[in-house]
Amino acid sequence: MNDTIFDVILAGGGVMGCATAYYLMQADPAMRVAIVEKDPSYRYNSTVLSDGNTRLQFNLKENILISKYGLERLATFSDDMAVGDWRPEVDFRRQGNLFLTDEEHRASAQAGLALQESLDCRVGWLEPDEVKRRFPLLDERKFAGGVFGELDGTMDPQAVLMAFRRKAVDLGAAFIEAEVAEILHARGKTQGVRLADGTTLTAGYVVNSAGAWGTQLARTAGIELPVDPVMRQVFVLQTAAEPRESYPLIAFPSGLYLIQEHGGRFMCGKSFEDDPVGFDFTVNQAKFMEFLWPELVEYVPAFDRLKVTGGWAGLYAVNRFDGNAILGEWPGLEGFLLANGFSGHGFQQCHAVGRYLAETIRGVEPFLDLSLFSPARIVNNAPVFEGRGKLV
């Protein structure tokens, strides 16, 4: 490969990189945009290995508006991303999200609900007896109520990623299979990237869209991000219960979550403080048997009989600083933009984040003001937290 000049390089071809490339090319087809991805199969990509959920239930206005925009885009996504006769099918299933809370965090949950309602989100409070009536498998004595978002749901995350990638390339973006080894810069300005094979690609803008590998990439520019690659596990369960009802994604007060696939088939997971840091994709079924199953039965007694039929492990890019995205240009390095540290909720934010980064690069006023998530807050030690009791 010869040295090549671009306007923008996306260092990482996951959903953030491809969404940003799409919005750049949509706005200005004359831009020279390159998506550089080391593994086009996406075997270990966090988006592909995610649950594919999206929700309005956040405690920060900006996160709520990001989700609202994503839901708006999903309404026409298949048509917008069509390439010729091909249309992506993301299989969006609007089963809702139910965030249950204990008494200690009830006030915090209801404060979040009030903010969501003020922003015209279709969410509502359910008392324990109403939860039991609608979802009889649950033991209503184990929680103090919950917030139900009827527009929330799950979809095929790989289909969303591939739609952005295919459409961006159709609009003129270059997709390069290679590994970015180093961010090149001089005198406070970004100059491009050096690939693992020694090739240099020049550009005035480079976006760190490397996901769980983003901290390693930032170090090559002398930047230390407070983001760790943390392994999370998802277990697929076949239960003896055969509910007639359709169950939402349920987040229990302990942090355990449950997603019904169909009938008695569910997915289950939970984040632990001692989850491995690093690039480990090994599923440990003993962890479910020892920790998750006893806890699950406390909330759903009918799940005392079940079989683990599958599972997988993926990586969260966990922002240890405050758990929220790090978006925008790094102070002191002109042209180096970050899209890092989403801490498990990145997939659902790809639509708004991709557009925001594209508008930032193009120098136009962003449709959403997401400056709250600027990397400057890391330098200034000004964390932005979601709120106590809220799962991110």
Report on the structure:
It is built from ten helices and 20 strands. Helix 1 (15-27) runs parallel beside helix 6. It has two domains: 4-76 and 157-226 and 321-379, FAD/NAD(P)-binding domain, CATH 3.50.50; 97-153 and 228-317, D-Amino Acid Oxidase, subunit A, domain 2 (D-Amino Acid Oxidase, Chain A, domain 2), CATH 3.30.9.10. The chain has helices spanning 15-27, 61-74, 77-80, 106-118, 128-134, 157-170, 214-219, 285-299, 350-362, 376-379; strands at 4-5, 8-11, 33-37, 53-54, 97-101, 123-126, 145-149, 153-154, 174-177, 180-186, 189-195, 200-202, 205-208, 227-239, 249-251, 257-262, 265-269, 306-319, 326-329, 336-340. Helices cover 26% and strands 27% of the residues. It is an alpha/beta fold and 392 residues long.
**Class inferred from helices and paired strands:** alpha/beta
Helix % is 25-40%
- CATH superfamily of the largest domain, called what? FAD/NAD(P)-binding domain
Query: Beta-strand percentage?
Result: 25-35%
Count of helical regions: 10
Please outline the major beta sheet: 8 strands, mixed
Shape: globular
User: What is the mean pLDDT?
Assistant: 96
Q: Indicate the CATH topology of the largest domain.
A: FAD/NAD(P)-binding domain
CATH architecture of the largest domain: 3-Layer(bba) Sandwich
The radius of gyration computed from the alpha-carbon positions, rounded to a whole number of angstroms, is 21 Å
> SSE order, as H and E?
EEHEEHHEHEHEEHEEEEEHEEEEHEEEHH
Number of strands: 20
Biggest β-sheet: strands ordered side by side in the sheet:
6-7-5-15-16-17-14-18
Distance between the termini: 41 Å
Low-confidence stretches: none
Overall tally of domains: 2
CATH class of the largest domain: Alpha Beta
